[in-house]
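Re: Re: token formats

Sure, here are both.
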Amino acid sequence: MGTQTLPFIDFAEPDLKPGSASWDSIRDQVRRALEEYGCFEAFFPKIPLDLRKQMFSSLEELFDLPLQTKFKNFSEKPYHGYIGPNPLVPLYESMGIEGANMVDNVDEFTRVMWPEGNTTFCKAIHLFSKRVSELDEMVRRMSLESIGVEKYLEEHMTSTNYLLRVQKYNIVPAESNEPEPHLGIRSHTDKNVMTILYQNEVDGLEVMTKDGEWIDVHYRSPDSFIVLVGDSLHGYDEAGEEARYSLGLFTVPNGGYIIKAPNELINEDHPLLFKPYDHAQFLSFYYTPQGLSLEHALKAYCGYYK
């Protein structure tokens, strides 16, 4: 493990508005971080401590539900419903809540899990998702501004929705004889637009730099989030001595939306690398034995140079 650390960017400025000097300064930091690492640690103290504690308590309650109840979190979309332990990832469980920044969607999920209702869980998850979506919107706006294509901002924002995945990385049994007993989830690149991760105080996330060095991520503040650009960085998770709970807010393109590079970014020095593609169709390709076996699935699916 190397000695590098992820860039730390402070989003606590109370008047952080587009066009302000503080906005421009942080936008420059975001661009440098994404160009160099594909991710960074964001200091974003907008979620009260009591809410965070209640949220993780609610997650313990959620994952303690009977297996047949958790299976009710079903979706035909890949990686949107319940995922339970399997031989490849024996320590990992997760569930998905589409549009978790909207209270009606969280309420619907809650009533599937608890038909009698669970107001505490519903309020905590909704408020968390709504606040984190504000960070996502700032980072995406800064990203488009920094490369001079902010005119596409409205199209970009309206072409995506949010998927909150609540995740549990179980502890490794002391008597485990598994060849890789510490593996929580295998190395991968996120296939969506952007991911924002938040977890309890149990460390376990590792990321790979473009130079091939692994960074062991230690959150420097309880108000920190890890922001990752989809499909630009490898993330590797381990399980530790305590169960690790995390929440990932994934920015996902809407079904049928065609992803393509703006013409302003294409020239002789920067040729088009990927053909326009439908994200949902790409996911259907990726979640096959062939797709999962590929190191660079997007390049194989729609890259000009395969």
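Second one below.
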Amino acid sequence: MKNLLIILFTGLFSTGAVAQSNPVQDPLTTIEFESTTVDYGKIEKGSDGIRTFTFRNTGNNPLKIYKIYSSCSCDILSKPEKPIAPGGTGEIKVKYETNKVGPIVKTITVYANIDQNPIPLRLKGEVIPKNN
């Protein structure tokens, strides 16, 4: 009985690990971003930090965005929830919190049904003190 419980317990964990590393077996496609870097330049403290990454599905299968991870001080405001048809476009909207003066060097990591996982998207620039 004890051995049976160990086998069942091990099987549950190994199945979960496989499912997490490849959540869905969707056909692969390709993606092309207008730019993989958003350059804020010099932006004043407290300014609007919302920017958009625009992309196109350049492949022959629907494009599915599975997950997007961001480094600290950056929020993912929106991403496509439905598959993007071949030839279609989509947007990933991000917000950098401009409440702290200093350089902007952040990476957003996108996982999708493409060969080149993950795709790094970069934010760069500098938050400068506000001129009153």
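The domain at 27-128 is CATH 2.60.40.10 (Immunoglobulin-like). The first helix runs from residue 2 to 21.
- S.
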